[in-house]
Amino acid sequence: MQKPVKKVTLFVIFICFLSALFYSYDLFIRVAPSVMTSGLETSLGIGATSLGFLSAAYFYAYVLFQIPAGIILDKYDCKWVISGAMFICMLGNFLFSIAPNYEMAILGRVLMGIGSAFGFIGAAKIAAMWLPTRFFSGFMGITSFIGIMGGLVADTVLESFVQHLGWRAGNNIFTYIGVGVFVLMFLFIKDSADYKEARQGKNKQTLMYQLKLLMIILKKYQFWVAGFVGAVLFIPINVIASLWGIDFIQSKLGVTASMAAWLNSLLFIGSAVGFIIVSFISAYTNRFRLMLVISACLMTLISVVLIYMPMPIWMFTILIILLGASVGPELLVFEIGKSLSPKGTTATSVSGINMLNNLLGAILLPLFGWILVHVALNPEHFQIRDYDYAMAMLPIMTVICIPLCMLLPKRISRR
Questions:
Q1: 161-177: pLDDT as tens digits
Q2: CA distance 258 to 254
Q3: How far apart are CA 7 and CA 370, in angstroms?
Q4: Cα(361)–Cα(113) distance, rounded to whole angstroms?
């Protein structure tokens, strides 16, 4: 029987946009602590290491729920799963905003991580069921672009709210914005007709069968390599822009917090541009390994110059945009993971890659704070030499990444 042709209608574009909007909310709440570090430390009575763990609590929950989220999305109705996950994100953001102590703030971050675990893979699942296959990487690039805009909003709009309203009231505004997104998702997101039919057969599959498919994916070493490469290429967003970038920029350039937040936001702008460029290129080539090698080489070179060379603000501005743009090919690891996985396991394969992608962030965020505390001459006031030590993790990891890329398929097959 001939497979039905997928048509890109306005409705399809709209629900794909809604799923991408969820990922944007995910990125926003992920990086929000970066613009309120001093407020969090003062209000909750914590230091740099505890702040790193507070930010990373999101990642711990996010990583732990990636595989379950993928299995759930492959098995159940996306409307209920994605909408429910959005509600959990809103609840977490609300609890974080009103947290009277460190423990409540951690709980809020954990709930945000659980809900956000369904964000990116939810968008991937919607794309797989509604869009033609050749547009998959392109849509994931657009999703990444929209997601990065969430980080940009955190560094600009939220930073302004925090300055004028305080971190609690400023952050809580976005709980109510989340309510609006939740309502739209619940009203409009739905599974495609052919996917509903396929899922009826899938629902008869046992959990053991689902786990068997998962084991097929996890036994492939190239799947693990793809996840690690993606994780390294996403360090500028997950570790630097998400928490430590603003403080690093202030120490290096001696600028105000607002100016540092603006410069930090250029990482998001650069990566957004990189995602869009790569998403268009990926529609016409399947030589993903070459693009990943180029990305790792560029990131190594740019990061070394950016971190260790003294420079004026205009040069720093150019380089931080380029560093962000070099993140762009990271989105290709998701289609590599999808191509290595059994048919019908899109969400599971993407969730596996995304789990590995963010596991590294969960490790490096508190490690960055730990390095700062242990190399600092004055742990109460970090200097640029302290950040130089901590930031070294980026070029070291990208150098390791370059030969590992050669283990990936030279070209990928599209189904």
A1: 888 888 999 989 999 99
A2: 12
A3: 51
A4: 13
Identify the three-state secondary structure at position 285. coil
Model confidence at 4: pLDDT above 60 = no
Q: Please say whether the beta carbons of 411 and 335 come within 8 A.
A: no
pLDDT beyond 80 at 2: no
Distances from the Cα of 279 to the Cαs of 95, 284, 315, 342, in angstroms?
Answer: 36, 9, 27, 23
How far is 168 from 93, CA to CA, in rounded Å? 10
3-state secondary structure 7-33: CCCHHHHHHHHHHHHHHHHHHHHHHHH
Are 373 and 47 contacting, i.e. CB atoms less than 8 angstroms apart?
Answer: yes
62-71: per-residue pLDDT in tens? 888 888 888 8
- Mean pLDDT for the chain overall: 86
**Other Cβ atoms within 10 Å of 106 Cβ, number:** 22
The whole-angstrom separation of Cα 294 and Cα 386 is 29
**Residue carrying structure tokens 């799963």:** 81
Q: What is the pTM of this model?
A: 0.76
Could you tell me if 77 and 192 are in contact, meaning their C-beta atoms sit under 8 angstroms apart? no
Q: Is 313 left (phi over 0), alpha (psi -120 to 50) or beta?
A: alpha
DSSP annotation of 3 = P
- With residue 107 as reference, give the H or E element that holds it: helix 102-116
Non-local (6+) Cβ contacts of 309 within 8 A are none
Give CA–CA dist 228/351, Å, rounded.
Answer: 13
pLDDT for 1 equals: 44
**How does pLDDT run across 269-305, given as a tens digit for each residue?**
898 889 888 888 877 777 889 999 999 999 999 999 9
